[in-house]
Write a structure and sequence with these properties.
By secondary structure, this protein is of the alpha/beta class. The protein is built from 15 helices and eleven strands.
Amino acid sequence: MTDATETDRRLVELRSHCADLTDAIEGHFLGHREVVDQLLYCTLAGGHSLLEGAPGLGKTTLVRALSTVLGLDYSRIQFTPDLMPPDVLGTRILEESQDGHRHFSFQPGPIFAHVVLADEINRATPRTQSALLEAMQEGQVTTFGESRKLEPPFFVIATQNPIEMEGTYPLPEAQLDRFMVKVLLTSPDQADLVSILDATTGGHGNPPQPIVNGAKILEMQELVRETPASSDIVELTARLVRCTHPGGPEVPESVRRMVRFGSSPRGGQALLLMSKARALASGRLFVTEEDIEALAAPTLRHRIILSYEGEAARVDPDELVADAFAAARRG
């Protein structure tokens, strides 16, 4: 079998898996196809997701369904102000053997799973939030002076409530930058709400079933990395990231006035990887400008720090990303 034939086979298989995964998730999380797609692209790109939405919109249901159809271990951590780092990472306990000898053994925390739901992450203190940083960046945790690897694939999906700000601790920029995407979950429209009410107030439906497994996910992630992006696409991405910063002659006036700091290079990496995943899920082995435009807001919105004027005007970061993209497209 030639390399081209093998690549085509892998592409067809990945596209088929993506369609099956999306259908299975939508069977238990009704509506919001764009949200499901973005989480799936992030999974294929090997990144972490920040899911923001009001209470009761099904964030936990969505993450649980995603982990099930992916065939991965799932763990949920409810972040509260009194949560401590050992509650996340694990701790040592003193055990006594049958012969009377005592020794310490490590009790793994809930971080040791494939899919970790950090529920209401902004309710915990910065010290506890930071317990996730090494896991998200390095795929390992260090406890009691010993580093322990996390079995891949490993994803953190954190949720936060944008309404209740009382008693919360906003995520620092360094941690926000570790999330590949920030996915916004809005209220369902009339038709979707009718479907949700009808499906959730009747008999119990069939639970979701695994469609792939960890080994298959790693294989699909490898294909995403291998997907080429033309020099024009890479240059467009670089111009877009630069256009989110207030300095420079090519920057739009809205960004110059409303933004204090723009996206880091990690935002450009996230955008390219997500665009590659979107291209493969669409059956293409190349990234288009449309992929970049579609995923610019989810990958960059949380990386833009507004100026005092921007905060006072309550400007939407998505609008600034759109202005930056228009400027980047003009070159």
